[in-house]
Structure formats: C-alpha cells, structure tokens
Amino acid sequence: MHPWTLLLALLPALVVAQDDGTINGPTSSASAAGYSCDPNTCKLPTCNCASTSPPGGLSPSEVPQFIVFTADDAVQSYTLDAVNQFLAQRKNPNGCQPKMTYFTSLNYTNYTLVTDWYVAGNEIADHTMTHVGSPPADEINGNLIALNALAGIPMEAIKGFRAPYLNYTPETLQLLKQAEFTYDSSSSASIPVTDPGTDAYWPYTLDNGMANDCLAVEGLCKGQPKLPGFWEIPMYAYFDDRGVNGPHLMDPWLDTANGASTVNDTATLVYMKNTFTAHYTGNRQPIGLYTHPIHVSKTYPGVVVSQSTIDMINAFLDWAQEQQNVWIVSNEQLLAWVQNPVPVSQLGNLDALKCLTPQVEATLQICNGIPQNEAGLLSHCDFPDFPFYTCYGCPSVEPTPENPNPPQQVPTGQNARYRLPANCSTPFWDPIAGDCICTSSTCAFTDDSRPIGVSRTGLTRVAFGTHPDFVVDMYSRMVPI
Ligand SMILES: [Zn+2]
C-alpha cells in the first residue's frame, strides 16, 4: 500500500481522539449523588465506600502519591514512541521503570505491539473494538476476544475498561460487570480536592452505586447502579486559575489555560503543579496523566508536535518525582494497593509494584512478545484498512464485533499457530510449536525491584537529595547526617 493511503486511513482516528474526554465544569454534586455507604459493612478488599480519605484508615503521610499514566486508542509504534518519551527514562522508588495502562481499541492497532507492551509489564485494557461510545456488548466483549486470540493477552489480565469519548451509561457498567471486568475508568472527578464538595474520591466499588458524574450521565447515582465488588477509578481533573470552572481532564496540554485563546505550556505546567500539590498536601487522592499519545508523537507522519509541550510534560514528571513517595503506576497497580493499602514503609511487599522480568534465553527463537526472541517469526496480516503483525496467525478476515476471532488463514506449507492457553503465560508460550517452555507451575520471572520497606524507608529517585539534612547514597537511600 502507498504510505499516503495508510496515512489517510489513519486520519479518522486522529480526528476522533481530539474530542475525547473534555469536561467544562462540575459533573457531580452532593445532592445529585445522594450517596450513602456504611464503612462498617463495606470493607476491603472486596468493598470500598466512595471517600476522599485514603483507604484502610491510613493517614495521608503513610500513603503514596500515585500518578496514574494511561493512553487511549490504537496501539502503533508511533503511539508507543510517544509514551516512551515520558516513561522509558524514569524509575519508581523501587528502581523499576513505571508501568502504565493502555486502553486499546483495535481499528488501526498492530497486535504484536500489544503483545510486546504487555510482556514488558504494562496493563492492556479495553476501549471497544471500533471506538464507539455507549457501546453494545459485542464491542466490549469482542475486544477481549480479539486481544486474547491475536495478541495473546490472557483473558484474566484484561481487567479494565474506558468508554470512548468517556461516553458511558449505567448499562455499560452492567455489561462490564457481566463480562467480569474488575473496573471501569470513564468517570470524572471534576471538583478540586480543596473544595468542600469535591468529588475526588479514591477508587471505590459500586456496592452502593456511583458517586461521580451524577449530573452528567442519566440514571447514575442515588444508589445506582448497584454492582457489588465492581470498581470505579475516577479520572482526576487538573484545575487552572479558574478553579472548579477551569477543569482539564485528558491531554491538558492541548487545552488553553485560564481562558486564554492560545495554548501556553508555561501556564499549563503551573496549574498542573498546583493541582498535584493540592493532592499531595491533602488526602493524596491519585492524580493522572490521561493521554492520547498520538497528539504528542514525533514519529506519526504529517503531525507537527510541539517539542516545548513534550518538554513541559517531562518537566512536570521530573518535578513530581523529586518529591517523596511519588509513584507512576498503571490502574491495576493503583487498584492492587487500594485493595491492600499497606503504608509506604511496606510497599516493597506489594507484588503489584515489583518489576518481574520473564527469564527467556536471548537466543531462543520463540514468538513471545520479546522483540529479540520473536524477530522473523511474526505473521504479516495484510488487510487494506490496517495491516498488522501477530504471533498468533492471521485471521482470514479482519476481526469485527460480530466476528472478533475469525478462523486462521494458514499460509501454504505452514501450520496453524496455537493460541495462548489458559495455563501458560505469554512470554513462555510458543505459538508455533504449541508448547509452554516454562516447566514449573509458577513460571520463571526475575524480580528486578530494589528492596524497600522498613529498613530502607525514604527511598526515592536518584535525582532527589537536595534536603540539607540528608545525603543520598548510590542507591538513592536517604541517610540522615
Ligand atoms: Zn478513545
């Protein structure tokens, strides 16, 4: 295909993304919420009341400040390049590279990159197959089926959902619960944490209905919908000088600040820092960078990206990471901590925050989501709309919501590829031989995280260490002097 044909085919996705996720003012209020929840009966890990206080009765000083990093829409090399320019060079306090959540829609997605991104430790979540708001069941469930069949993502690993355009209904949440999703993250926290009526709740279960978006989505709140054990992770807005009247939710760097007529990265950075500080010095509700990476990709043909905007986002993260107990995480990592809210001194014990690297010989030729192993083994599925690569064999037709897992089209002289079974994890599955190369019941992963905890409290990143009462050793441990 001529490159320009491909570019034109991709443009609709770009246009779509620009309207995705804007709010203009409060989306909830206490009276619209009509929310009540009894913390004596609603208890972790399966139930959590919507609350502005940290889970588990912890005081804010014992609580990490989480920055959730998410990306939405198709997965392509240029969108992963965009994410990597913010995360690849960073470390969390335990020495691990931060992980993020990719809400994946499948039109224009290159399936093998989804496999690679997952095997590298990131969370793959559902954003419908063809990017439709208020989606029917086959758009939600087809995404699960196609990601499992063609990207080798275990069904149980796909825990989360975000509605395209953040356009969801009570029925959407019901469908997610029926399909055994763990959480939705489509709602907005639209009132600053410093306002008495803030709706910046920690993630909560819908045992007593929703408490966010009560003014924005019909049929929500006042106890509805009741979905016991199903979580809502609100998306926390930033606020400019106009406070509650100046919210910025997704891609704040594309917005103008303080009612100005043009984008001003300096002004954006100021209000992002101010909002972060309000969370950090308050109840430490999470904050998020909710991105459409295509807008900040330098490798997407034909799109001009401002280097100053990219630098501003990195400056924000640099500044945030200079403060203690700040973690950049995926939604599943955040939720793992909320369900088991250990104080910061015990974070080293939380498996979800560790970095676990699959132990696979570098020379082994196996189509497993590790680039050095799978080189030369990918199938190229040359569909005119959006060609893609996969380890799991090309389907005979493009996957659709009606037919998310079409029969394989097996090239002459080759055998069909074997899809991921339930009892083998992705980096150890050989789809060509149909063999699990991990022979133990718990597959071989190396823990690359640095021990943290009681004996090493105060760990933070290497660049930290300006406080005059401390020196920082080579492992970035803060030592009182
Ligand atoms: Zn989207």
UniProtKB/TrEMBL annotation:
Domain of life: Eukaryota
GO biological process, one term: carbohydrate metabolic process
Keywords carried by this UniProt record: Signal
Signal peptide: 1-17
Keyword Signal: yes
Name of the protein described by the UniProt record: Chitin deacetylase
